[in-house]
Amino acid sequence: MKQVYLDNAATTSVRPEVIEEMVRVLREDYGNPSSTYAIGRHAKALIESARKTIAKQFNANSSEIIFTSCGTEANNWILLSAVRDLGIKRIITTQLEHHAVLNTVKHLADVYGIEVIFLNILPNSEIDYNQLENLVKDNSKPTLVSLMHVNNEVGTELNLEKVANLCTANNALFHCDTVQSIGKTRIDLSVLPIDFIVASAHKFHGPKGIGFAFIRKKNVLKPVIFGGEQEKGLRAGTEGVHQVVGMAKALEMAYDLLDEESAHIASIKEYCKNSLIEVFPEVKFNGNETGFYNILNVLLPLTPEKAAMMLFQLDMKGIAVSRGSACQSGSQKPSHVLSQFLEEDDLKKPSLRVSFSHENTKEDIDQFIAVLREI
């Protein structure tokens, strides 16, 4: 039985070229980057070369790229330091955010007493941009706007330029969780005045356990991990050289192949969408009409009883899809994202997140549809 992997928003396979690069580093460049002798200096040089490679993809300065273990760590650090060190007293965000942001913001409200404002979500899953504009114009409190670029469950894409310019015009800081979009769309930080973005390598065919934060030079954050001078004194701990190099290689390949691979992925998504409509005429798709090109959130015309074992049955037939965020896969509660804009009746019906990569084929979709039809 062929396994069909359609959960690329949760994680992606590691490209063979990335694995080769990481294995080479593990074999040959095992020195501690903080050591002053040759093998340590060479390891350090690899890290700094990777930092420049990553910064180049965004037209950023390499000094603005700080390596972390993942996007979750980067989000936590930025939000905490913005409140603790930059004097932020108000955060504007949404209930659609990944829990790495949502739970952190709620924690900061409890501990530091900051004001948190959740934007209204329109029926098409987009934020209310007029409400955001009115809120940031009130600059009575130092404000941080924290909004994700591409929603990890339904693929709704934020208008980055609009939000960034609104924040700049009203002296608000803008933190954007870009975990789902890094490596899948170009972000020019020399043009877009975004203060903070984050990435996790495993979302763009790199290794797990490594990510980065972009911190614009004017924003001086302080560390939350102490014990060493690594990462310009901002994050203590011996660097995983092979992971850093692997992430840089994966990101470089993602952008070198972006036009070709994004066109293929978009065509696979469209084929999947049309195939679902053909077999299930009453099917609906959650989110806005366009949505990001690699995510499709499907609302199936089934009763909760019939849908109870659907994911398990799909898995038994070799199909890997999800209900939503992998970080919340153990929860039986309705999706915190869908509950913000779906009507009560639709919220009770089963929704599947199907997410694609350059490795998927039309045959994968045919097998998925056939199994879905069968069960």
Can you tell me about this structure?
The chain is of the alpha/beta class and 375 residues long. The chain has a seven-stranded mixed beta sheet with strand order 2-8-7-6-5-3-4, sandwiched between helices. It has a three-stranded antiparallel beta sheet with strand order 9-10-12, covered by helices on one side. The protein has a two-stranded parallel sheet with strand order 1-11. α3 packs parallel to α4. The radius of gyration is 21 Å and the shape is globular.
Radius of gyration: 21 Å
Number of helical regions: 12
Output mean pLDDT: 94
Low-confidence stretches: none
List the helices and strands in order: EHHEHEHEHEHEEEHHEEHHEHEH
Largest sheet: spatial strand order: 2-8-7-6-5-3-4
- Kindly state the percentage of residues in helix: 25-40%
CA-based shape: globular
Query: Span between N and C termini?
Result: 16 Å
For the secondary structure, the number of strands is 12
Described by strand count, sense and barrel closure, the largest sheet is: 7 strands, mixed
Oligomer description = single chain
Beta percentage is: 5-15%
Structural class of the helices, strands and pairings?
alpha/beta
List the helices and strands and how they pair.
Elements: E1 4-5, H1 16-28, H2 38-57, E2 65-68, H3 71-84, E3 90-93, H4 99-112, E4 115-118, H5 129-137, E5 143-148, H6 160-169, E6 173-177, E7 196-200, E8 211-215, H7 241-256, H8 258-279, E9 284-286, E10 295-299, H9 304-307, H10 310-316, E11 319-320, H11 344-347, E12 351-355, H12 362-374
Parallel strand pairs: 1-11, 3-4, 3-5, 5-6, 6-7
Antiparallel strand pairs: 2-8, 7-8, 9-10, 10-12
